[in-house]
Amino acid sequence: MNAYHFGGGKSRWVPYAFLLPGLLLYVIIALGPSIATTFFSFTNATGIQGAPIDWVGLDNFREFLFMGQASQDNLAALGRTLIFSLFVTTIQFGLGLLIAVLVNQKLKGTNFFRTLYFMPVILGAVIQGLIWSLFLYPLGGPMQSILDIFGLSSEFFGGPPSEAFAWVIVVQIWANMGTTMIIFLAGLQTIPSEIYEAAEIDGASKWQVFRNVTWPLMTPSVNTNLLLNIIGSLQAWQLFLVLLGYRNGTQVLGYLIYAVGFGQTSGSVTSSFRQGYAAAASIVLFFLVLVLGMTTQYFLNRREKRILG
Amino acid sequence: MKSKKLLILSILLVLTLILTACNGDNGGDEVDGEPEAEEVTLRVLVHQNPPMVEFVEAFNAEFEANHPNVTVDMSVVNANDLSTVTQTRLTANDVDVVDMFAFTNAAQPYMNNVDPPNWQTLIEAGYLMDLTGQPFLDNYYDSANQDAGSYDGKVYQINLGTVCYSGIYYNKDLFVEYGVEVPTTWDQLVTACETFNENDIPCMTAGGKDGWPIFVGAYGLIGALYPDQEALVEGLWTGSIKWNDPEAMEMWEKMQVYAQDMMEEGASGIAGDAAPGRFASGAVAMFPGGSWYAAAIETSEPAFEWGYIPFPGSDDPADNQYLFGKYDQGWVIAENSPNKETGLMYLEEFSEPENYEAFVNTVGFFPTQPDVVLDTKIGLEVAPYMENFRVGYEQYWVAPKGAGQYANPFASYFSPFGTYDDAQALADKAQADLQSGLDANQ
User: Fold this and answer.
1) How close B46 comes to chain A (CA, Å)?
2) Within a domain: A38
3) Does residue B277 belong to the interface with chain A, where contact is any CB pair within 8 Å?
4) Is the pLDDT of residue A94 over 50?
5) Distant-in-sequence contacts of A298-303, Cβ < 8 A, 24+ apart
6) Per-residue pLDDT reduced to its tens digit, A246-292
7) Which positions ≥6 away from B234 have C-beta within 8 Å?
8) Minimal Cα–Cα distance from B69 to chain A, Å?
9) pTM of the full structure
10) How far apart are CA A38 and CA B186, in angstroms?
């Protein structure tokens, strides 16, 4: 029997030929730009083709992490990124799971609610931002009208940085919870109904069924969602741009990278494009995502092996 | 043999046809003895500014009528995206004429370790056409060509006008109704606000959600203390001026009053482009902001009666006579454009006095050409102060690398827009953030 599925000789290379288009695509849209970003992080590139690029060694990293008060502000943005990720991941995960369980019931109208909860995902960040800016307009907007009933008021996105930041967390969760819900829903629907029937015959309560049947069997979708939520929230930046702009005390690392790379740090349209420096900040973010992602994956894999064998 | 000859003849025939077809496309044909002009598509890029876009569209139609072989393909982008799109399209050689903001924020000899601004990098990389010596430059003030469009002794931009941002729009009807004098000093401004607040009329509004309109609105406070803004920037870099000097403390204390007592509740949630409509609704007495808002106010409520005065940042009226602002947009031509000649014709016709006058009167700019008659409301309001027009601090300012994010005199750092409630603490923080950058570059 031939050791190779596609036969010996030249046929051995057929599977590699099939892999080639995908590999090329990966190199062009993912690996190539990543390598280029790493290279540019050691330069003073502006992104302008033809402009001189000088090798600056580790200067960009030194400036980002250690130079003056700006480096402290950068580290604060890094801390804010972690806080943002913690809140978004936890709440989005919990809410997505709860809603997936609810819309998985055999009740009338579940399709409508599935569509309703998923709908924000298909809107772009600009539309999402516009909807929430109108909803949270402090001078007579719908949310303020509700608060007025209780004698309360808020400046929402224009309020103190911590309050504005909290509202972005709300919008981020609203915008992405649909994806979490759909992944959980898919996971729920792969659990055979016989297991639920057996548990019911054994007299298990609803909580016991969830804890001992649903939760363990949803492990693959739990792992997927947790990783996607962590990575997605660490890289978030568009909603910060649309809802807050460059505002002290609210920036996360992803937005900071965009702002310094495209001269948007002061709102001025004539600032320098510091794309070499932005590339260095991107590498810092990359390592943050890598460390957190790998650590999470390690523990999730251990858990999966323990539960599913 | 016969078929070989037939093949050669066929090839010759096909080649002849191809060459004839090519010849027909090169614009070299003569019709009735006159050479047919080459078809040109002029690619123009402008930023979103409704009255300007409307004017340029009308101008383009006129330009196309004057030059039947030219089609103008105009793209409009958001102002914040203009520099990114400009850079992308210039490097892709996909644009001929670009609306570019004035050349500002240049590195000065006393600045250490700063990056050149984007426009300078574009010039050095050879993307902008040298306009030096073009006859239409003579239509503009030489100072405008030099200050807003030149680099290294060459002119690369014609600048189309200035705007001011240190003024206050005021609601004439409310001032008359409550018997309030139009303020010319800080004390009068405080009294005016107290009167309006006592009558449940919000004193001021602004687009606080965007942050910068709060800073721009309070510009008169910086201007009244530091009328020479270029010297202010040099002083900050060299250490002769500090943000927590006793003189600067007066500015911070007044900024706190402005942000916390004068601004209406909820202003921090109003977007920059929504603020003119809020003022034009007649609900508030004053709106500190730039002259570019005038068109939006007039569009919102054409019958609304408003006036415009310099922000009185000082108790001495003599200190409040200045209007601070900036050179705004201009035209540049792409150096690698295949349509440079058409681009030059476009700029030449745009620069003709009657076209230029119509432009500034539509957009609300103050002219960079002499002998222009302004008939805009904002033009008439500002005319008495134009002798005292000065370029503002933000056009000169370049932050030292490593400086913290509070190293600027922004009123938006006070709550509710920011987190500060103590003027001294904020002044100390601003100076510490600046000093940190200066020290890091020693």
Assistant:
1) 14
2) no
3) no
4) yes
5) A300/A222, A300/A223, A300/A226, A300/A227, A301/A223, A303/A219, A303/A223
6) 888 899 999 999 999 988 775 444 578 899 999 999 999 999 999 99
7) B108, B110, B240
8) 32
9) 0.84
10) 53
CATH 3.40.50.970 fits B167-321+399-440, yes or no: no
Interface test with A, best of B48, B147, B165, B209 (most A CBs within 10 A): B209
| Chain A residues in contact with B413 (beta carbon < 8 A) | 248
Domain extent, residue A146, equals 60-65+72-308
Selected from 3.40.190.10, 1.20.58.100, 3.40.50.720, 2.60.120.10, the CATH number assigned to the domain covering B39-163+326-386 reads 3.40.190.10
As for how many domains chain A has, the answer is 1
What's the gap between Cα B127 and its chain centre?
21
- B31 confidence band (pLDDT: 50, 70, 90): very low
Complex-level ipTM: 0.83
Whole-number percent of chain A with pLDDT over 90: 76
Residue pair A48/B125 in contact by the 8 Å Cβ criterion = yes
Would A170 be classed as within a structural domain?
A: yes
Residue in chain B closest to A258 (alpha carbons) equals: B84
Q: How many CB pairs under 8 A join A and B?
A: 144
B49 touches chain A (CB under 8 A): no
Q: What CATH number should be reported for the domain holding residue A121?
A: 1.10.3720.10
* In chain B, where the domains are located: 39-163+326-386, 167-321+399-440
| Overall average pLDDT of the B180-190 stretch | 96
Chain A CA closest to residue B440: A68
Asked if the model's pLDDT at residue B26 lies above 50, the reply is no
**CA nearest neighbour of B168 among B155, B184, B151, B154:** B184
In three state form, how does the secondary structure of A257-280 look?
Answer: HHHHHCCCCCCCCCCCCCHHHHHH
Residue A67: predicted pLDDT: 96
Instruction: Tell me which chain A residues have a C-beta less than 8 angstroms from the C-beta of B415.
Output: 160
Nearest to A248 among B103, B265, B405 (CB): B405
What would the pLDDT profile of B8-23 be if each residue is shown by its tens digit? 655 555 555 444 444 4
pLDDT in the model for residue B386: 81
